[in-house]
Amino acid sequence: xxxxxxxxxxxxxxxxxxxxxxxxxxxxxxxxxxxxxxxxxxxxxxxxxxxxxxxxxxxxxxxxxxxxxxxxxxxxxxxxxxxxxxxxxxxxxxxxxxxxxxxxxxxxxxxxxxxxxxxxxxxxxxxxxxx
Length: 131
Prior knowledge:
Blueprint: H1 2-19, H2 34-46, H3 57-74, H4 77-95, H5 101-111, H6 113-123
């Protein structure tokens, strides 16, 4: 019985380690397959100089408008900045490439300057480049 108690944690660690390997998911293309390489090169070829902003300005503004009640309820600039940093990044990551702060500034200046000003004021920032 004592041997089992000693081996159980070792077995668990071995199983956990093997579950965390970088094996491709079933049905996924191998990393060096022609399909993966072609997709990567076509995506890289379609990106304009200076990065890509896949999300439209309207979508960004709609997201920020939806976040305003939450941001207003936080009560501190540091808390708002932290919330905005994590949630905005996570939202962008789900949409596609994450743009730079300057790209977010450009989009929101054009599409929703009032929302932009309010969000930045709540976070104690002058620009999204601080995120």
